[in-house]
Amino acid sequence: MNEQALAERFDECRGHLRAVAYRMLGSLDEADDAVQETWLRASRAGAGDVANVPGWLTTIAGRICLDMLRARRRRGEEFGGLAGVERTDGRDPEEEALLADAVGLAMLVVLDRLGPAERVAFVLHDLFAVPFAEIAGIVERTPATTKRLASRARQRVHGAPALPAADLARQRRVVEAFLAASRSGDMDALLAVLAPDAFRRAEPAAEVRGAHRIAGETLANPARARNARIALVDGAIGAVVAPRGRLAAVLRIAVEGDRVAGYTVIADPPRLRRVSIAVPG
């Protein structure tokens, strides 16, 4: 395969490679950098007699993303482990917000908590159906060990519900109604889903009580509502506030019957790291 033919095949695969890299890295700028580096390495190496060009390119992109994740982790260790909680780049925030929402804010938050090899193994196998034998060469493990990496990541992504499925489903309906009313700015819908004596707690602020007061505060903070999505928080249905997929706060939500009894806002980074977050089934 000559360079022109390889360039044409690469352009056909560009969208796929970008999707893979974004889920591995959680940043469109970094994903685009990874895709560009994939082309540079592929063009230098030449496709030769490669039978499966998309698979070959995906493998190259996977190695590049793994190196970038490892470098990010090293930077995080140098700066006290806080890197990645809030990353900024030069891209249009609206574009990245749309993609983050399409992928799932809770998914991006949980993926960001995985180790580099776990994240690569899970993304490639569970989200893009790459065989473990191919992933093993990327993460430099045996296929059996790679399978265990993906299994461990899968358990963390989906979590361990602390309640029966029926209770979780009921909680989810209530919390979804609360978040939908918050995003739409519908005062009547908010009051309908909040218990009359509902509470809102957030450190260092004192506790606030009363549905009307909480609804008023919620409508006065549209950015938080716009970036809040359902998540499994410590085994129960709650929410993450994650602008562009970057975790800013967690809402631990108490549901009683068909109403929100109250919620606690956790935004302090050390406390956030102790909260278990997973993608609800």
List keywords for this structure.
281 residues; alpha+beta; 7-stranded mixed β-sheet; 13 helices; 7 strands; 15% strand; elongated
Characterization of the model:
This protein is α+β, with helices and mostly antiparallel strands and 281 residues long. It has helices at residues 3-25, 28-45, 53-78, 93-103, 105-111, 116-127, 132-139, 143-158, 165-184, 187-193, 211-220, 222-226, 269-274, and strands spanning 194-202, 208-209, 228-233, 236-241, 249-256, 259-266, 277-278. Strands 2-1-6-5-4-3-7 form a seven-stranded mixed beta sheet, sandwiched between helices. Helix 3 (53-78) crosses helix 7 (132-139), helix 6 runs antiparallel to helix 7 (132-139) and helix 7 packs across helix 8 (143-158). It is elongated, with a radius of gyration of 21 Å.
| Helical content (DSSP H or I, runs of 4+) | 55-70%
Principal-axes geometry comes out as: elongated
Overall mean pLDDT stands at 89
End-to-end CA span: 44 Å
* Run of helices and strands: HHHHHHHHHHEEHHEEEEHE
The percent range for strand residues is 5-15%
Strand order of the largest sheet: 2-1-6-5-4-3-7
Number of helices: 13
